[in-house]
Protein: E3 ubiquitin-protein ligase CBL
Amino acid sequence: MAAAAAPRGWQWGEARALDRAVRLLQRLEEQCGDPRLTSSPPSLRDLLPRTTQLLREVAQARRPAGRDGPEDPGGARDFLVVYLANLVAKSKQVAALLPPPGRRSASDELFREGSTLRRQLAKLALIFSHMLTELSALFPGGKYCGHTYQLTKAPAHAFWRKHCGARCVLPWAEFEPLLCTCHPVEPGSIALALRSTIDLTCSGHVSIFEFDIFTRLFQPWPTLLENWKLLAVNHPGYMAFLTYDEVRARLQACREKPGSYIFRPSCTRLGQWAIGYVNSDGSILQTIPLNKPLLTALLEGQKEGLYLYPDGKNHNPDLTELCQVEPHRRIQVSEEQLQLYWAMDSTFELCKICAESDKDVKIEPCGHLLCSRCLATWLQSESQTCPFCRTEIKGREVVSIHQFQERPAEEARAAAEALAYSSDQEVGEEELGQVTPSPPPLPPRLDLFPDSPRSKGQLKVAFPRLRAPLTLPRIRTVASAPWEITSRPQAREGATGNS
Structure:
């Protein structure tokens, strides 16, 4: 009877695997009830119920009919097979460290900070955190989106789609030769170290999400593996799989040496770095340079006297060799778009939030442009989403806009007048039965909480409300692109925060 009620095509093996994983996590959650296991994020007591809930949502979204046909290789089904097998394996490792359900007795070593067992438990908590973030990125709300996932860095996205297509996961043995087509990998210990860095969930596979995190951490793309070798293999300040508390504990030995520092991938904001350092007064601070390459953040901190002694050692590696000027990448804007701005009595290069400064920053991955002052003010309001489309801001690129095909003023005015005249004629002929094209949405106002305590001492910019756009003309032709956007390697100032 139950089988008859199930939607046609539902994969019972997958359904049972999801149900088994949920029950396993529930039992594991009971074992983590000892308050002595409470620690700074990531905490298993917080991660386990959230993972359980998301798995239920995935199971619910996978039930509807329409899944009776075979799925493409590397799609949702293949990902879940890899994910659930890894989840079960990691859950058993955690269960072996914890006391059985109903018993509070366990080895004292497990509850002693810095012990081997506690360190193993902290590393497993980090892996569970990575797995939850990965599942949330590829199954938001339980619905699969791996085939449309957008990598933050455009060259990385182009590489993945060219070589991996719509797949969201593939074995490391298959991924490594693909990566070697543009970034050669030395065999042996270097290849093993690279695998351990990319494979955040320790599953033996590489997902599109994990590759996105790796390319964000070790940007820019042209020197991706060179950056990784210098920062993660040879740099004494790099620490993998450390939590906030463990960074503080490690730097305690360097409190008498201000300028000592270590850095690690942030466990709460994957794709960004967390830097811990000893301040001039001996206090231990930790910061996240938002949307800024680590190379830039470390060089700036070195100039300010903050990052001088990696892990307390006197030798600070020279990072300037990797901070080289990249070739300019041109983003062309069509004459159709340019005439649209003329019809609105505006220009393409003008920031559409403040209407005062020129655009000089591109938000990643959505690609919207605005000026750096508006972006800095927007980030200071603690918003980490694009002010235009609300996509999460995962990076930014400094750009400059140049007019390289300047049109004579008379020709420009004549084209605009001809465009307006043609549009008026069409509107008059098709006035009845036509729907007026909706104008683009106004950008949000950023003059948020001007009197709040957080705004004191911060940059205050009065952002005027833009007037309603004119009715947009119907443009039929596309001419050659009269504008270009070129990137500059310099990074703008970034906000900081605690991991």
Notes: The longest strand covers residues 395-403.
